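A reminder from the course coordinator: this example appears on the midterm review sheet, so study it carefully.

Given structure:
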């Protein structure tokens, strides 16, 4: 009798176990287990030294891997302005035009479904620029709703400042973590700032009272020196100072040499061959040819302060002391 009862108990337990196992394997999996939640990834736009003298021209990380449904959040990390701009496939960035609202204004749609869709952040910077009628923003979000390889540029710095978002199908395992990308940013920022300071030192060593460099860009087009080198010079009445923008490596960073009241627009004003005070400006210096040198002859004793109209907020200012 006992063995018969025990056998029945075993049969019931076995049947119950089969039902439970069937329920476990056949029941629908909860939505939270089947799909991963969308992730927001972080990318830095530009880099700078603590005093702003060195500015970087990189998106860090330059390449990032995300899934459909994820969002990328770009944060301005420098005073130097940049954009995050997705162009039609194969189109290269046009020359930057601060009067063109399609270049300076954020697009209204913060979702993108395919490479080639135009999206623009507006101008990203930690500073506001009076020269930009649309103002600046400090961050930009874009959610990716379709797979593909999305290439973007900074309109201000062209092809030298490029980034890529690689978008895989939803649920694809990520090859890297945000911590991995944060390390890329820290290493890249350190390398860029180090290169900028070395360039700064080289330019200072070859400058003089009569030869002032108007900023500089390193050979890799990653680091910019946003200073006049040397910022304070002393000359005599009748002598000339060459303000030299030849250390640009072909990068079209806009600089001016502007004395006196700031003109309403960055166009040439005054006579640099006979400067005795008042308003004088080089306008935007070209990157090549004779125009890359703005030579000013000082024909009156005094102290003459000058600025770069675009970067004086970063500390790009100077002074010429003219003695009898």
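Designed residues:
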């Amino acid at each position: 009798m006992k063995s018969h009862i025990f056998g029945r108990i075993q049969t019931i337990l076995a049947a119950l176990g089969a039902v439970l196992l069937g329920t476990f394997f056949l029941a629908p999996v909860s939505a939270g287990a089947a799909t991963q939640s969308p992730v927001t990834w972080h990318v830095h736009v530009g880099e700078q030294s603590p005093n702003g003298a060195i500015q970087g021209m990189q998106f860090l990380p330059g390449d990032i891997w995300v899934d459909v449904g994820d969002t990328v959040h770009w944060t301005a990390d420098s005073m130097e302005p940049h954009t995050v701009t997705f162009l039609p496939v194969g189109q290269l960035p046009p020359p930057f035009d601060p009067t063109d609202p399609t270049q300076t204004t954020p697009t209204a749609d913060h979702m993108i479904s395919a490479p080639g869709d135009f999206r623009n952040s507006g101008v990203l910077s930690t500073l506001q620029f009076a020269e930009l009628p649309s103002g600046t923003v400090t961050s930009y979000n874009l959610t990716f709703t379709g797979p593909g390889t999305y290439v973007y540029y900074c309109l201000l710095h062209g092809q030298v400042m490029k980034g890529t978002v690689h978008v895989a199908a939803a649920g694809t395992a990520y090859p890297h973590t945000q911590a991995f990308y944060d390390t890329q940013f820290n290493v890249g920022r350190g390398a860029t700032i180090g290169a900028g300071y070395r360039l700064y030192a080289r330019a200072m060593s070859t400058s003089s009272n009569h030869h002032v460099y108007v900023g500089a860009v390193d050979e890799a087009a990653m680091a910019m020196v946003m200073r006049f080198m040397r910022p304070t010079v002393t000359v005599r009445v009748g002598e000339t100072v060459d303000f030299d923008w030849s250390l640009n490596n072909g990068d079209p960073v806009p600089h001016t040499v502007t004395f006196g009241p700031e003109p309403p627009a960055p166009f040439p004003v005054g006579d640099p061959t006979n400067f005795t005070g008042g308003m004088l400006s080089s306008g935007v210096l070209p990157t090549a040819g004779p125009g890359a040198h703005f030579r000013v002859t000082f024909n009156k004793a005094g102290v003459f302060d000058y600025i770069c109209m675009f970067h004086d907020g970063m500390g790009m200012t100077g002074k010429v002391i003219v003695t009898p």
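DSSP finds four helices and 19 strands in the chain. Confidence is low (pLDDT under 50) at residues 1-34.
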